[in-house]
Amino acid sequence: MTDPTASDPTAPDPGSVPASDAPEAAAEPEITPLTQPAEGVPPVLRTPAEFDEAAARLAAGEGPVALDTERASGFRYSGRAYLVQIRRRGSGSFLIDPIDHPDALGGVIAALDGPQWVLHAADQDLPCLRELGFVCADLFDTELGGRLLGLPRVNLAAMVAHHLGLGLVKGHGAADWSRRPLPEDWLNYAALDVEVLVELRDAVAADLVAAGKDEWAAEEFEHVRTKPEPPPRVDRWRRTSSLHTVKSTRALAIVRELWSSREELAIERDIAPGRVLPDSAIVSAAQASPATAEDLTRLPVFGGHRQRRLARRWFGAIDRARRLADADLPPRNAGGAGLPAVNRWANRNPEAAQRLSATRTALAELSERVGTPVENLLQPDLMRQICWDGVGEPVTLDAITERLTRGGARRWQRELCTPLMFTAFTAPPEPDAPADAEPAS
Question: What is 116-143 written as a DSSP string?
């Protein structure tokens, strides 16, 4: 798990009712520190024989399987798993190093193809598990369950504290997990991430049933399990930090060429792009447009020992951009895809602005009523797109349902949001109600 805990999990969860209005408010449970696994830190398994033994033990276990991975985000280009943590009742915990023998994991993969997987923030871990060949047949995402329940904090440590009264030792989530050997305290941290994950699943599942949201959760978990990988972004170089400070199209071309050259080198060396060359250096070079490689090395960052060795490469990218015909320069704005900024809707599409304003208000009221964040009730991009496009005339419940279905909204979301959007879309226009004055979603 790569996201370190951002706040103290032992702090009381803020409530929605003032203490003065809750005379019998239950006290927060006392937090018991969980500093190491009950059975100790398991050994790191690296060989095919060790994998096969783990597979046999996992197959003999019972119930759901807790899973987690550790990657090296910020250090490596790839999103591969450098450690896989597994725990199952009756089997124990396992730390698997898949790097040297990824093709020898067949027994473990087979043992886990069938039982329910318990993950926390499954979107982060499923891609790298799939890359190794693991197949998830049934998913329970404890973080997503916490969001549906409306918990104020849904990181693993906060939820373990809230539901189980245990305080997890955290602190190495953002470490370089490609390092070998892995330090003992890192392994302790990794093992703790699955130590009580099944127990957390049981507590969250019980709360979902009590809240009448268990069917919502089942649909959401299945959506996460089965949704395809998103297509690659177009013009990813436009996400370069501080790109807005680059004014000319020729300078934008320099950014594009430097970004592409950096990307190639980052992939080749499996190093995070920002560690190959910072975005700030790319923007600085684009703005300065140095005439020679020597001029380039006088700029910040490029004068360092490592960057001086790559000066020819970087200057070659700059020179390619300088030689481009005007017709081949990138436009200042990406254009094409995407909706206009919301604060421009009133002028460009006033009917859409009205639909958006009314829908946002209704969603905020629904969120308050059911205790689930707006963004989980309906994906914000889908909501904005439907408000912009409309659903034709006359507006009907079936037309809204069809558009929500086509956009990927789950059944429970459609049941809640279709009548809400019908009312919002058919309400009389409200004078002087700019869309950008509504709550953000």
Answer: PEEESSHHHHHHHHHHTT---SSEEEHH
Q: Which amino acid is at 190?
A: A
Class of domain 19-226: alpha beta
Q: What is the DSSP letter of 29?
A: P
Chain segment 262-285, per-residue pLDDT in tens: 999 999 999 999 999 999 999 999
**For the chain, what's the residue count?**
441
The answer to whether domain 342-437 has CATH 1.10.150.80 is: yes
- CA separation for the pair 34, 31 (Å, rounded): 9
Q: Where in the chain is the domain with CATH 3.30.420.10?
A: 19-226
| Residue 16 confidence (pLDDT) | 38
Reading the block at residue 155, the tokens are 């990181």
- Give the Cα separation of 372 and 358 in Å (integer): 19
* Residue 230, pLDDT score: 87
CATH 1.10.150.80-classified regions of the chain: 236-328, 342-437
Going by C-alpha positions, the residue among 341, 421, 342, 340 that lies closest to residue 377 is 421
In the structure encoding, which two tokens stand for residue 353, read together? 């602005």
CA dist., res. 179 & res. 71, Å (int): 10
pLDDT tens readout for residues 73-108:
999 999 999 999 999 999 999 999 999 999 999 999
Sign of CA dihedral 261, 262, 265, 270: negative
d(CA 186, CA 170): 9
Query: Considering the domain 236-328, what is its CATH architecture?
Result: Orthogonal Bundle (1.10)
Find where tokens 């930090």 sit.
241
